TrEMBL record, chains A, B:
It is a multi-pass membrane protein. Pfam families: Na_H_Exchanger. Signal peptide: none annotated. Residues 42-443 form the Cation/H+ exchanger transmembrane domain. This is Sodium:proton antiporter. One of its GO terms (molecular function) is antiporter activity. It comes from Merismopedia glauca CCAP 1448/3. Keywords: Antiport, Ion transport, Membrane, Sodium, Sodium transport, Transmembrane, Transmembrane helix, Transport.
Amino acid sequence: MFLNHALSGSAFLRTPMPLLATVEAENSPAILSGVLLSLVVIYLASKIGEEVSKRLDFPPVLGSLIAGVIVGVSALNLIVFPEGGISADDSNLMTILQWFNHLSPAALTYVFESQSEVISVLAEIGVIILLFEIGLESNLQQLKEVGIQATVVACVGVAVPFAAGTGGLMAIFHVPAIPAIFAGAALTATSIGITSKVLSELGQLKSKEGQIIVGAAVIDDVLGIIVLAVVASLAKTGEIDVFNVVYLILGATAFLLGSILLGGLFNKTFTKIVENLETRGSVIIPAFIFAFFMAFIGNAIHLEAILGAFAAGLVLDETDASNELDELIRPIADILVPIFFVTVGARADLRVLNPAVPENRAGLLIAVFLIVVAILGKIVTGWAVFGQPGINRWAIGVGMIPRGEVGLVFAGIGSASGVLSKPLEVSIIIMVILTTFLAPPFLRVAFGDSGHPPTDEEDVSVKMGESQSAS
Amino acid sequence: MFLNHALSGSAFLRTPMPLLATVEAENSPAILSGVLLSLVVIYLASKIGEEVSKRLDFPPVLGSLIAGVIVGVSALNLIVFPEGGISADDSNLMTILQWFNHLSPAALTYVFESQSEVISVLAEIGVIILLFEIGLESNLQQLKEVGIQATVVACVGVAVPFAAGTGGLMAIFHVPAIPAIFAGAALTATSIGITSKVLSELGQLKSKEGQIIVGAAVIDDVLGIIVLAVVASLAKTGEIDVFNVVYLILGATAFLLGSILLGGLFNKTFTKIVENLETRGSVIIPAFIFAFFMAFIGNAIHLEAILGAFAAGLVLDETDASNELDELIRPIADILVPIFFVTVGARADLRVLNPAVPENRAGLLIAVFLIVVAILGKIVTGWAVFGQPGINRWAIGVGMIPRGEVGLVFAGIGSASGVLSKPLEVSIIIMVILTTFLAPPFLRVAFGDSGHPPTDEEDVSVKMGESQSAS
């Protein structure tokens, strides 16, 4: 039956391959070695960082990020990428590889670039899986219930930091429009995982304040992903065109809403398909086909792959296979998501903010400015709550501060798009780290925590930020 | 604290990036689109193939492979690789990508090569995970118990097809030594999964014949992996040097035995580490660090990555975390292993065996020769059993026939190394397909099956060949 496909024959004797294929075949073991060694370094760094962070009572994802900084271009130079003038000679991982393979300089460069490309794509697939998992965990029903208060808080929490951040960067620091918008957008995120974990520890998850914070954080996620899709697209074209902005905002919203509406119809079909499959991977493979297809469409219509993955997660959360899928996606996320966080840290060159170097001071000022806007811009959201006399406005504002992994997604995508200057990129990462570090103690103070051991009111550990946390 | 790592500063203003980084940043969304679309095609093909194969009562992995042939270079040209003169214009997937991204010819070539590289490495990681899983499922204890009979059957089943295949190819067809040895080695494998599934269906798994077949197949796996490591290394250096062959055989054996012995000591440490981890992925990440590190070492000392992964699986199977690991590895294998099987099929250009083209006839004769040797070389193993009067020698011989996925691993690695001529590669794949198709009906005849519905004596569905089967 196969021979029916035959269209033409080829000579029996082996014909010489063109140059590229030869280069590939010769270096393919070295590329695989490079990828395997990179993954070993990434997993080791991520796990050690997470465990240390957890023991110090900080969110694990922060440990993963800081471990990335340590193995990356700022310090150990193990995980580095061919950008900003970095060559194979700068990579200590390549030096290790050279002990085993004696590659020519040209082959070494080829291997370095190829393995970096593979790790970059794996990191992108990692963030796609992360957003797919977040989508799976976000309950559409819950989103509808949290109501108008949370929506107002979320909108204020997106609008104020975005406007203050973008405006300030352009007016005070003369940053060009596109990177300024990108940095402003990175300020809009709220990490539901970190906040809800602390609220749960304080026994405040079911309080009025807690409900508003969690609801607003969920809505914030959705708004943040739309903002990111718009901003990242602007970064790709490199110019701001009013029609384009309108297209992007409408497009992203329509894409998300359309997916959810169509998804309602697709639900039953998906469940039916899954039920009829008899071979291994009967749930996970159809789910991945759907998620990757949606990610492809998101990317192809010049929005973002993660928007598609998030929409796919929202849709599949409504199916009967949802619980099984939650279980199956965990080990896959466990091995792919750390690649994203570690490489975000690894790419961030903290040396550009070394205060000992005079020309770095402007960058440092930007970092300080972003952190101030990040904190104040969210604290004001507490005063957006109306008709709730006696509510703890400080607690709500402080609860919205941590940026967590959504802020990092902005930094990572900004870095990959090449639109952010190095100091701006590093400032965003430091802003994310600091807001995430500060939120837990601030929140305890705002709620007047007496230090009593908490009761776990609700298991929200798999929500968002905790994608990297509880085991 | 981060700034301690600062070594030097860099200018605040964004400096222009070198050419390569620009090319990468510009094309990175297109590369991601290419990878996502490739994965969607691979998963769709694999799932449909598996389901059809299963319904026709064939092993699912065969369906995956044939689906790969259909989407690959032989027919639909969706999943093709830049080798043997294939360019981006030959890839229908790239044509689809061009609808969304209007890339220049140079950019298109860059995107095609980059996404092919990523898919190739993902396929290699897929086969590493497959061998890790097989290692996890192979019980060292069981291996020790099956005893001398199974060992003799396994050794005969490796030696006879290897000698007859290699010798015949060199003497009759004048194939050069290295590809002849490679093809001969591909004849040595036995698929434990397919055989044990059929034995279980016939209710013969616990019979004397069944026990010998399964035991021999397990030993065959280990021998096959050592043979593969040796042969693949020969293919890399391109010449046969007696010292090198001795080094490789001793090296591979020592590596495997050494890993198992050291692993006995490492067991407790691993369990202890896993127990003390508190963050997500506490079992899977340490396991992957170990597996990828062993795979890296296997690759780095010029053996094979899969040998290291297999050894890692054998070692971790002895730990307390083994059962949990079996569960966690499944969804990961489900999404990575199909990439390997589909790309093996996709790379195989069946047109080189089109009998309508006169110069293909030599290749066809090779295919016929390999199939005959593959069947006869295993049937003789039945007569290697001694001191067992009245045993069904036909059944034992026939039970050893199916090559399954281990044969495909040979074909895949041979193809990646560039040592096999296209007709020889395709002949091996057809040999694997035919032996695997033929074994189930042959085995029913040899056992004189009356067609009664079977009782499932034992769940061996996760063993080897069934890595792709029961859900």
